[in-house]
Design goal:
This protein is mostly helical. The chain has 2 helices and 2 strands. Strands 1-2 form a two-stranded antiparallel sheet. Strand 1 and strand 2 form a beta hairpin.
Length: 115
Amino acid sequence: MEPGHHPNVAAEFAKRRRAMWRAVLPWGALAALAFVVGFFVGNPGEDATQPERIIGTTAFFVLVAAFAISLWRMRCIYRCPSCEKPLMDAEGIHYAPDSCPKCGVKLSPPTHPHS
């Protein structure tokens, strides 16, 4: 076994990564739909009709809410199994880290070169 590598941590991290994508993808799809509806249907301009303004404003708020919920869900689920810190730092979200940026524990299974 490699130093600093814990097999159950890597397995737990793989489960959390899958759970994070299952939790975030529907909200991402809703945000994308709200963007498309707001862009193509909503009209915030002065010549907009009342329904166009309502659609545009609603789409904007749905987009912001879906994005915020996605980030919140990601922050709650996508954590290091060892230190329980979110896999985010000043550089952003680490989607496929080899190790935790906070505690350094290995999160990916070791690779075995073929002989």
